[in-house]
TrEMBL record:
Residues 123-189 are annotated as: Disordered. Residues 123-139 have a biased composition (Basic and acidic residues). Keywords: Membrane, Transmembrane, Transmembrane helix. It comes from Qipengyuania algicida. The lineage of its organism: Bacteria, Pseudomonadati, Pseudomonadota, Alphaproteobacteria, Sphingomonadales. It comes from the Bacteria. The chain crosses the membrane at residues 198-219. This is Tetratricopeptide repeat protein.
């Protein structure tokens, strides 16, 4: 097989790892909008739905409304131009992971990979260095050092141009994994390219409509009708020193505003109060006070109060001049507030009496039960029955499906033979294609089959719509320890685990178990010891509780190995990851006498 074909076959992995590498740069850490746009283009390129349009970039990638007018607003073109400059800036300072840089051609909205001399040439570089997938596959038009591969072209396009399908290496991750249900062949296998294009366009339109209807924050109706709007958070930033836009304090203030806005907007639990709503009329007020001088900010003090002015949470986040460290601290504080088992959710739950009277109350109750490691199937059934049209329904269906999959695993039922779980999972996907919970399930099912490429795609979708939900992130990553992972990406994951362990004030039983499993999967002994120490005090209930008992107690581990393996199997679905975690437990126990 030609070298170019071998490299084309793993285009998805190369692009994903390179995008993750670039996103770690301060240029993107300081710009949530640019980061979001790059992730969107990465997903669109890998999924292979054709060239993203300017309208798609504006609405799906940048959050513009559906009635956006391309003729009156150049926002997407400006952002794409800025993204090109940002990428060039990054690559002027760092090397790509695998000698291939991410770049965007002028006039296009998809990602390519190419050597630095091709992607970011000097004035003397010739445009003819650029090469298409077809040119690489057939050795036409140009020189092999100028190879560049696009993941956006469809299989039909390649077939028409003569490139063998086995050389494409493109993912079809736009739909749930095929092993999840006995389904007919995909449309591309039974219809013409034209019909396929039409069907895909219709599917994208329906997905966009569903995404709007199933909006992230504001739910239909009011409290009296059983359908509840999420509580609103009013936030204000104050600086101890007057800050000009060009000062360090001004930069930090903008970073805080963007981060807090994005995180609350993406939350399941709360929404941002509209500008015309007074602070005293919001259910929660978030005060963000920057301390220090204009050129040397020192700390961010964060205070959350309820509508009775009762203080619910305080945190102080130091700033040492490094944005990455500061954002880690701010992210952990926002996790404490905004996760479905965090401060705001717990406060809303405490305000309820008896069984939940709203769909939002149902959602919070179910998530708190799950965070404690307890089954929530009965509560889910009741909530779906009482609120059949709730916008939380896709989440409930996904939760119920996950529990049924776990029950099936405990009984020895393969994932692809668990019809009840499959049906709920696909119903959730049909209702909300970007549902964080359904995409988490899709990622785990893909990993169980060893399909790391599609798992990464579903993982990105899950975390995009479920940002600030550490349990989902770690649930996926704990399974993906069996997948090839670039050193930089592995280091980032270890850092994320360490930060959650050290900084989170909302550790719960489920999260504690998953963090320990993920740490064992990495094989990093220092991380394993740290997370064991930080989670030792967390109360754990439910069938997975033997796992934490086994860590640090060799006698218990040796006498309960079958029970421990069964608990691991229900949470970790990839056989290699299961073996790695079990081996890690056994190795640790040998070194730690009872």
């Amino acid at each position: 097989m030609p070298q170019s074909a071998e490299r084309l076959a793993n285009f998805d992995e190369l692009l994903l790892s390179e995008v993750e590498h670039v996103l770690d740069d301060p240029v993107f850490e300081r710009s949530p909008t640019q980061s979001k746009l790059l992730k969107f283009l990465c997903d669109e390129t890998i999924i292979g739905r054709g060239k993203p349009s300017q309208f798609s970039v504006a609405v799906d990638g940048l959050g513009r409304p559906e009635d956006y007018d391309l003729n009156s607003d150049s926002y997407p073109r400006v952002q794409i131009s800025r993204l090109r400059r940002s990428l060039a800036n990054v690559y002027s300072r760092i090397d790509p992971l695998n000698e291939l840089c991410v770049f965007i051609r002028k006039g296009e909205y998809r990602l390519y990979l190419a050597p630095r001399t091709t992607a970011y040439p000097d004035e003397r570089a010739r445009r003819s260095d650029f090469r298409t997938p077809e040119q690489d596959a057939h050795g036409n038009d140009g020189n092999s050092t100028g190879a560049a591969w696009s993941g956006a072209a469809s299989r039909q396009d390649h077939a028409r141009n003569g490139a063998p399908p086995e050389l494409i290496g493109l993912s079809s991750g736009a739909a749930p994994p095929s092993n999840a249900i006995d389904a007919p062949p995909p449309a591309s296998a039974q219809s013409s390219p034209l019909r396929t294009g039409i069907l895909m366009a219709i599917a994208l339109l329906l997905a966009a409509i569903l995404a709007i209807v199933l909006g992230r924050n504001m739910l239909v109706g009011d409290r009296s009708g059983g359908m509840q709007k999420v509580p609103l958070v009013h936030f204000a930033i104050r600086a101890s020193a007057a800050a000009s836009p060009s000062s360090a304090m001004g930069d930090l203030e903008n970073l805080v505003r963007q981060t807090v806005t994005n995180r609350i907007s993406a939350s399941f639990i709360a929404g941002i109060a509209p500008p015309d709503l007074q602070a005293q009329d919001a259910q929660f007020n978030l005060g963000l006070n920057l301390q220090g001088t204009a050129q040397s900010p020192q700390t961010l003090d964060l205070v959350l109060t309820d509508d009775r002015n009762t203080t619910l949470y305080r945190a102080s986040i130091p700033y040492d001049g490094r944005s990455a460290n500061f954002l880690d601290g701010l992210g952990s504080a926002l996790d404490d507030l905004l996760t479905p088992y965090g401060i705001i959710a717990q406060h809303e739950l405490d305000m309820m009496s008896g069984k939940p009277q709203t769909d939002y109350g149902c959602f919070v109750t179910i998530e708190v039960l799950r965070s404690r490691g307890m089954p929530a199937s009965g509560q889910i059934d009741e909530c779906i029955k009482r609120f059949p049209n709730s916008e939380f329904k896709p989440y409930w269906l996904s939760r119920k499906s996950y529990e049924l999959y776990q029950e099936g695993i405990a009984k020895g039922i393969p994932l692809n033979k668990n019809a009840p779980a499959q049906a709920l999972y696909h119903e959730a996907f049909a209702l909300a294609p970007n549902n964080a919970f359904a995409n988490t399930l899709a990622a785990k099912i893909s990993i169980a089959d060893g399909d790391c490429t599609n798992a990464a795609i579903f993982s990105r979708r899950a975390l995009k719509s479920g940002e600030g939900f550490p349990t989902l992130r770690i649930l996926i990553r704990a399974d993906m320890t069996s997948c090839p992972m670039p050193a930089a990406q592995r280091a980032t994951f270890i850092t994320q685990l360490r930060n959650v362990a050290l900084r989170s004030n909302q550790l719960n039983g489920q999260l504690a178990i998953l963090m320990n499993l993920a740490a064992l999967g990495t094989g990093d002994r220092e991380l394993i010891r740290l997370i064991q120490s930080e989670t030792a005090h967390v109360p754990v209930e439910g069938p997975a509780s033997p796992l934490l008992k086994a860590i640090g107690n060799s006698a218990y581990f040796n006498s309960h190995q079958a029970e421990i393996r069964k608990a691991i199997d229900t949470l970790i679905w990839n056989p290699n990851s299961r073996d790695k975690i079990m081996k890690g437990l056994a190795t640790i126990e040998k070194r730690r006498p009872a």
